[in-house]
Every structure is written in C-alpha cells, then in structure tokens.
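Question thread 4412

I'm putting together a teaching handout and wanted feedback from people who do this every day. The idea is simple: show students a protein as raw sequence, then show them the structure tokens that encode its fold, then repeat with a second protein so they can compare. Below is the first pair exactly as I plan to print it.
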Amino acid sequence: MHNIGMTDLLDRAVTAARNLPPEAQDEIARVVLMMATDEEPVYVLTAEEKASLAKSREQSQRGEYATDEQVRAVWTKHGL
C-alpha cells in the first residue's frame, strides 16, 4: 500500500525509518523538513551541551565571569 504522491523509494525510506530509535527518526525528520520546506534547521543540544549551558547560566546569575587573563588564554590556545 502506497501513500498518494509518495515515490516507492521515499515510501521504503519512511518504512525503514519507522524501525529506528526516536532520536534517529527525529534527525531524519529534521533533514527532510529542511530539504522539503523553507524551515530553518533546528539544532538540538546534547545532554553535555545542556549541562554546560545550565552551568554557564548559573555562573552568570552569580556574577561569575571569566577574567581578561582567562579570555586571553583561551584566545591564545586557539591561535586568535
């Protein structure tokens, strides 16, 4: 049984995607939406990135910022 307007190849791809874990399905959906519409890509943070962002926000709320020396050290490390 084929969906109206869907090629055999796309129908096979959708069927295969249904058997993947939810994270993989979401990634495929983002790519398809990006290709098929004018939607901007949506970036989903990893657990590590979420934790890092939360830590940064907490530090900011406490007024804890990098010193000029620390910033220069990071720039130097990356050749900036």
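The second pair follows. I'd like the answer to focus on this one:
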Amino acid sequence: MPEGHTVHRLADAFTAIFGGHRVAVSSPQGRFRAGAQVIDGRVVAPAEAVGKQMFVPFDVVVPGAGSGDVREPTGDERRWLRVHLGLYGAWTFASDGSHDVVHAIGAPRKRVSETETVLPSAGAAPSGVRAPAFPPEPRGQVRVRVLSEHAAADLTGPTACEVLTTAEKEAVVARLGPDPLRADADPERFVAAVGRARTPVATLLMDQGVLAGVGNIYRAEALFRARLDPMAPGRALPAEVVRSLWSDLVALMQDGVRTGRIVTTRPEDRGDGSPDAGRSRRRGAARQNSDDDPGVVPREESFYVYQRDGLPCRVCGTTVALRELGGRKLYWCPCCQR
C-alpha cells in the first residue's frame, strides 16, 4: 500500500499534468460509469492529498456577467474524485510526447502505486519506427480514465473510488488524523490522541484516524529512530517524545516527497559490509523507484529494521525481530527499542 509521500507526489503530478484543463472522464471497465459521467467534461483544479487519500476537484466552467467571462464555481458546484489506492491500486500516466507532460512526470509513461516504475514510452518513436498510438489502449481493468488533449491517466485496482460533493469530501477529511505532510496539520491532535490511548504506539501510528499517511515502512523506521518499544502504550509516552516522533516523521516524509523514495538510515549507519546485506533483495522485498540509479542510497542500506528480520541491527548487532500486529508485519530491534 502506498505511503503518504507517494500520494502527495501523485497529487502534485495530477495538478501539473491536468490542472486547468478540461478533461474527458470515462470508465473503460464500466464499474465507475455513473461517477465518470458526473465529472466528464469538467476542468481539473489543484489536487489534494490527505494521508493515503487523494482528492481531485473537478469544476464546471461557469459563465460570468460579461461576454466570455468565467466566474469561480461555488462549493456546491465542485465535485471531487476521491481515490484510495489500497493494496493493489495504481495510476498509469501516458502522454503524446509533449514536453510539458514528460517534464511533469519524469517519463511519458509512469505507473504510481507503492513504487513508481517507468513503463515503455508513449512519446516520440525513433526514426523509422511507428510511434505508439495516443491515447494508448486501456491496459487491464481500468476503473477510471482521465484524458486531456496531451495526456492520459488510468486508474486500476483502487480500494475506494467515488465522486463527492465538497461537504462530503470535508466529512471524509474530518475523520482522518493530521497528515505530517500538510502545512495545515495540527501535531497536537496527534499528541493528544496518543496520550489518551492504551493501545500500543505501533498500532496508533497505523491508525489513519490518529495519524494520516504513515504506513508500515515509516512506522517501523520512525519507532526505531526514536528508540521506542513498539508495544509501549500510547499513554505511557511523554508528550515531548510524541512531538519528537511527529517532527521526525515530517522530515522523513518530506524527503520522500522530494526524492520519491524512502531512506531512513543516517550516513554513519550505512555500508557496514556485512555479508547479509544482499538478503534485502529477497523475493517480496520492497523495491524503490530509483533502485538502479547511480548516486542514490541502495535499497539494502535504506532501512534500519523494515524487512530486515533475522539480520543484525545496524546499531547494536542484535537480531531484528518480526511479529504480526493488527494483520501487518512489525519489525523492530529488541535491544535498541526497549
């Protein structure tokens, strides 16, 4: 499941590619036909991310008082496409090769889910080679297609996909905890919620009603960096410790938005040369979008404990532990986090 930084990157990409453009919206799969009809032909306004949910506003073009004028639509006229990718959802972008679209998403075709993967180009073909058709044929079970003159975005496999009024969108947001990546987030809401709970702090960090946007990787890594026992009850933690945890998550997730990858290790804790480092490449290990790029921190050095069960802790050498908690895998160091 994508962590919050990926959803914020996705919202930025949507705004850069479609913002201000009138778009055609359809449902090739057919399951979202009614919702697509509501927003088809509207203009995309800047998208928002709140935690793991993206909200894309669609405005009608409303005539103003003068000839050719356009007035701002009211909140009642705006509609929002709410998407939660969940475990299997992903967006695939394609373009006709125009420069602005390519620059905005880094490649003419990109898939954005838990990882960001460049797919075969939909742009200009080499001399003598027939260029791929634009828009491309839908691949797989496409729930929603958003299409402008130069770009297309296909949504597959989301957990949630619906059209909301502004009031309905605000009601959804009100049920979420503060998002460390939003400038309007109130960290004291997080501090207060943790301070009231007997629940283990590891569970609280994954509760989107307590903290929006943190997933399994950030949960494990932030707790290790704070040297916190994952099973400690929230109410047992001093408020200043919880505030420090929030601040660290803000910094880590902002870095994730900038780079498109999660790196939580400090430079002095990387590259220990241990022979087990390659084990992080085992089947099922999380892959990042720039794993093969030169000059970046390699995947096997990016994390302290996440997916490093059975390996020595980078700080103390104790074997990293693994257990199930709330249906998700929890990784921690029994020595550093006690």
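Top answer:
Good format. For the second protein you could add a caption like this: The first strand starts at residue 24 and ends at 26. The radius of gyration is 22 Å.
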